[in-house]
Amino acid sequence: MGPVLLEVPASHTTFKSVADQFKASWRHSTHCPPVHRVYKICSPAPSLAAYEAYKINVESRGQFVSQGRTSYDLKLFGKKTGWGRFGRGIYTSSTSSKSNDYSQNDCKSNLKAIVLNKVVVGKGYKLTHDLTTLTSPPQGYDSVLAERGGSLNYDELVVYTNDAIRPSFLVMYEP
To answer: Measuring CA to CA, which residue among 175, 61, 165 is closest to residue 110?
Structure first.
């Protein structure tokens, strides 16, 4: 069984919270589009159990957990872009406008979508320049925190295991 989507009513505080996060994290100079729909993504119990087990393992080493942004499968790496700035990983960003750059609508809808995720960051290795040969974070680290500067205009967070990330909300907006 796959995830279940539950529409969040526009009048609900959760809708406002997600829409506010989307707007506040729009950092490109272009106009931030309005959010039209928000869906809560309810992952199946086995999927959540794998995520929670990974999170507990990272936390037990005295690391931290954080929320990120953009289901996830490393086998799909490179299918769209053909490369990864920080190697073979699952890429997210706290910048909604950066996520918008990678969102593509192949159907006749006038809406686009991005996913707000729960991400186990753990101990993040900070980079500002490309390191395309990575297949995992450097030893002693759980993720890569790509920060603005160097070759990056906007932040990225990269995890290298499917268990480190789960979708939380689907955000539908008009580009």
So the answer is: 175
Paired tokens of 117: 């995720």
- Residues ≥6 apart with Cβ < 8 Å to 33: 100, 112, 173, 174, 175
Task: State the amino acid at position 68 in one-letter form.
Answer: G
Answering whether pTM is above 0.90, one says no
Give ∠ CA 121-125-129 in degrees, rounded to 5: 125
Contact 69, 114 (CB under 8 A): yes
User: Which H/E stretch holds residue 60?
Assistant: helix 45-60
Residues facing residue 165 across a β-bridge: 119
Closest listed residue to residue 66, CA positions, set 123, 4, 107 = 123
Domains of the chain, earliest start first:
4-173 (3.90.228.10)
What whole-number distance in Å separates Cα of residue 175 and Cα of residue 87?
A: 29
Q: Lowest-confidence range among 14-18, 77-81, 108-112, 169-173?
A: 77-81
